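Render GNAT family N-acetyltransferase in 3D.
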Amino acid sequence: MKYFKKILGDRIYLSPKSVFDEDIEKYTKWINDSEVTDYIGSTSKITTYTSEKEYLENLAQNKEDVNLDIISLNGDKLIGTVSLDSFNWIDRSAVLGIFIGEDEYRSHGYGTEAINLILEYGFKYLNLHSIRLDLLSVNERAHKCYLKCGFKDTGRSRENVFLNGKYYDLMHMDILENEFTGDYIKNKNIK
């Protein structure tokens, strides 16, 4: 098995970041797909296989952040990535990042499940108090998903991101530990 069930959910599991050639190729494809990158604000970036390999290898070696692959339980297929980074241990806060790269897995609840798993991990295992994120105002699908997971709107930076000839607002959201009540991780021994 090339993936590891670090955090197990109902339909997916989160595995430590992989650096297998076929996964690097898949990430390179996703990061050059405007269906993915328009919503994460990185379409202007050119990504080669070599640069993505170096980036993923650095993520895999990074011991300060939590970088996980999202793997489907049905077929052990890599479908996306989720992370917690920019930790502030005094404030007990971090930043969430996620995308579902495989088109057929978008809008079917896989992102919601991955977020709930990483939130539980962040609050109940890493002892975080606050997890925040930013998103483009045009990313309505993600906004609905984050609201469903318990995030609250906390503000916006007006016309902050330039994309496809226009400026878009950058929305800010967060969730506090006492606002998260989920019990999603299936492979924990202590209940």
